[in-house]
């Protein structure tokens, strides 16, 4: 099969993150095509719209096939300029806003991706969550664990840090994480500092072979990274979590987003 | 004006992040309506689809108005079950996949939000970027600055850390950040460690009044947080960045996403 190539042009009066997120989801369904992205964020005046129109047509002429434009543009005048291009349009506002107006019996108010700077309370909650995650990464501090929304436990390099940071930045959760280390397995007890917070504890685990590969990159040929030790630590951690009734998730073949959403679901069940 | 309330139901066979991102963008346009979200991620079998169908109808009956369902569901059988609900549907796959098939002359391959676990090279690049950002936060280490994709500078609490972490998690960029401190202003020189990396330096600044509020929360009634000192530091930092030809952005009323996308644009121009 020959792989065809197509240029995808993301246009937005905001960051374009919504358009691009949708684009990734849709285009991932077409594995026979290679996509090349071009981005036009913050397109918020007529001059930029005309420049973009020219670029779209230029790309189409050069490539001999019209580009695909994925667009979130709240300004109908700018939208009209862009629609003059010879392109295949996926226009999220055009497609959904008018039907939504009818369904909600409400005119839309054209709010360009609103700014959420320091003046916005959501922004401050989010930054506070991130600072909490940074301060409580890898068991660095247990001063404030009672204020955590969630505490992740697991062996070193099982994925606790990226998951905690993502939970804080994306969902404004105060996420702490705490390592389970060989000393804990020897004592065969959950670290005593965590005991009061059973309700917020969730575990991460990982296949020993994968853990071995990750640790080997960091510290080659060490006991820490040996397959034998990885097997021992993972088995011991899972045994401890099972005994303590801590629900855990295997990170081996999950994205950070998948883990984060699964944990959010668990928290909503708990609450 | 009376505010009406509507339930928004996000349904996906993946995380639902795409559906929710689009939902936020669309619904932000309707300020006269209060929206209550319900989430059904990982809906990947018939039983879950039937449960969800029942829930959608139940919500509609209870509230006396049909819910709005925003959906990314790649399985047409499950999609058909859900569409039996009495709801207003925004169905991203239904709406766009068939026209895209025609445009691309390619059948879609039904890839549920693919897993990007440790086995995926993109995952590893992303984690490496995040580890880099953590290791190079707030000037902690300058061992490896030559490998940074971008280095953010600015006064303490101007927004460097959240922006760096977001750039690493979202765009897999190796983002370092380095504080500009009173000693730098007294010497009136860019820290010498940064001198070799002019091409990767970008600045963040912030309105002194806002900086004062943020610092005051951390260290009330200190010289550090006084409005006078905040004014001095911000003016000195901007003067230095101007002289050194470092492009900077004001974070006062910008979201982390907006800053990150603007910086990405600058990097693409530079390269």
UniProtKB/TrEMBL annotation, chains A, B:
Pfam families, per database record: Kinase-PPPase (PF03618)
Binding, ADP: 154-161
A single GO molecular function term of this UniProt record: ADP binding
First-level EC class: transferase
InterPro entries named among the record's database cross-references: Kinase-pyrophosphorylase, PSRP
EC numbers for this chain: 2.7.11.33, 2.7.4.28
Reaction(s) catalysed by this chain's protein: [pyruvate, water dikinase]-phosphate + phosphate + H(+) = [pyruvate, water dikinase] + diphosphate; [pyruvate, water dikinase] + ADP = [pyruvate, water dikinase]-phosphate + AMP + H(+)
Lineage: superkingdom: Bacteria
Keywords, ordered alphabetically: Kinase, Nucleotide-binding, Serine/threonine-protein kinase, Transferase
Keyword Nucleotide-binding among record annotations: yes
Family under the similarity heading: Belongs to the pyruvate, phosphate/water dikinase regulatory protein family. PSRP subfamily.
HAMAP family: PSRP (MF_01062)
Function comment: Bifunctional serine/threonine kinase and phosphorylase involved in the regulation of the phosphoenolpyruvate synthase (PEPS) by catalyzing its phosphorylation/dephosphorylation.
Name the UniProt record assigns to this protein: Putative phosphoenolpyruvate synthase regulatory protein
Organism placement in taxonomy: Bacteria, Pseudomonadati, Pseudomonadota, Betaproteobacteria, Nitrosomonadales
């Amino acid at each position: 099969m020959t792989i065809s190539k197509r240029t995808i042009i993301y246009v937005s009066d905001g960051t374009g993150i919504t358009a691009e997120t949708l684009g990734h989801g849709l285009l991932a369904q077409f594995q026979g095509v290679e996509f090349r992205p071009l981005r036009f964020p913050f397109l918020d005046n007529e001059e930029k719209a005309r420049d973009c129109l020219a670029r779209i047509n230029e790309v189409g002429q050069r490539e001999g096939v019209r580009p695909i434009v994925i667009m979130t543009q709240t300004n109908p005048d700018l939208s009209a300029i862009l629609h003059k291009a010879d392109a295949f349009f996926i226009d999220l506002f055009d497609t959904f806003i008018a039907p939504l107006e009818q369904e909600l019996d409400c005119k839309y108010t054209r709010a360009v991706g609103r700014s959420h700077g320091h003046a916005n309370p959501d922004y401050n909650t989010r930054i506070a969550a991130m600072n909490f995650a940074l301060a409580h990464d890898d068991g660095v501090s247990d001063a404030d664990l009672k204020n955590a929304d969630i505490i992740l436990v697991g062996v070193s390099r099982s994925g606790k840090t990226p998951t905690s940071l993502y939970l804080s930045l994306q969902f404004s959760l105060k996420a702490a994480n705490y390592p389970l280390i060989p000393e804990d397995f020897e004592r065969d007890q959950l670290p005593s500092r965590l005991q009061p917070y059973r309700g917020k504890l969730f575990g991460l685990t990982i296949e020993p072979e994968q853990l071995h590969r990750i640790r080997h990159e960091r510290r080659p040929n060490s006991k820490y990274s040996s397959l034998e030790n990885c097997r021992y630590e993972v088995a011991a951690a899972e045994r401890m979590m099972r005994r303590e009734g801590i629900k855990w998730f295997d990170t081996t073949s999950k994205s950070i987003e998948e883990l984060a959403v699964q944990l959010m679901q668990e928290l909503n069940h708990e609450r």
